[in-house]
């Protein structure tokens, strides 16, 4: 008996849900209210990611199903990181001296409801052939840029030939040393990570991939295969997790996630405080929650499992790492430190 051929990533994506009527009838949703949300902030949920939902309002559901709170609560900012104000050309943000953020795609395999670019993701005006051309020209003309982070949308939602073209252009610029790709595809549409795509990506090493898993339920056999394919091609993978209320704001969930990431060869990199994006305040957690979670990781699991807890400052101030308070006292001779179980130790300041 012939095995049934698995659908391609394009076939899966073509069956994505974009309207309330397309969602399962078992979900208790108000279609009219949800449509109002989608009219402002588009919805795309592909069948693979939808099938990860085990029950209504679980950690997967909340990430992908629109909520009327997105348009009824006006807390936060449309562009909290001031990306537009720091963009010398459309789609390219030059915040730090030696690196830039370069938007090359307006599409994602699933539109996260907490996205810091929800003001424009899914809109065709976000990225164009001209903006990509202008971005490459800007990078070529600024010799201080040694590191380029491709983002969007999701760069890996582009066709292989377009990905090759962009990477090839960047690699032709002598001062560009590092290329990074920010993508949720290994999590939200792992079928996209085909052998053909991997063969293209590995031609451009040193290439780094920042992926984005927020919940242990996202680490499936398909996601594992996608990440292992990339790692086997010599591409280092890091994960940038976002701390989200009622999704993963629990030390046990985060520890489980970080341990599972390591098992598929993805290094936990950042645990982000959720950005103060308008329409996302129902996901926000107090800073103390993140610090408590970090304290629950340090010493209780391998150091490889412990990400940096980071706040990306509003207004374009950049990323700032935060740590639980381990220093309890300092005098002329000793600093007093508290370990992971709360026991204090004196450490000499002078020898």
Question: Can you characterise this structure?
Answer:
It is a single chain. This protein has helices at 9-14, 31-40, 47-50, 59-64, 69-72, 129-140, 160-171, 185-188, 195-201, 221-232, 251-263, 287-297; strands at 92-96, 99-103, 147-151, 178-182, 207-211, 237-243, 267-273, 308-313, 318-322, 327-330, 334-338, 344-348. It is α/β, with parallel strands linked by helices and 351 residues long. The protein has one domain (73-322): TIM Barrel (Alpha-Beta Barrel), CATH 3.20.20.70. The strands form two sheets. A nine-stranded mixed sheet has the order 1-2-3-4-5-6-7-8-9. The protein has a three-stranded antiparallel sheet with strand order 10-11-12, with no helix packed on it. α7 packs parallel to α9 and α11 crosses α12. It starts with 8 loop residues before the first helix and ends with a strand.
Number of strands: 12
The outline comes out as globular
Quaternary assembly: single chain
The radius of gyration over CA amounts to: 21 Å
Amount of helix:
25-40%
Distance between the termini: 75 Å
Poorly predicted regions are none
Q: Which architecture would the CATH scheme give at its second level?
A: Alpha-Beta Barrel
**CATH top level label:** Alpha Beta
Task: State the helix count.
Answer: 12
Rounded mean pLDDT is 95
CATH superfamily: Aldolase class I
What is the element string, with H for helices and E for strands?
HHHHHEEHEHEHHEHEHEHEEEEE
Number of domains: 1
CATH topology: TIM Barrel
Tell me the strand percentage band: 15-25%
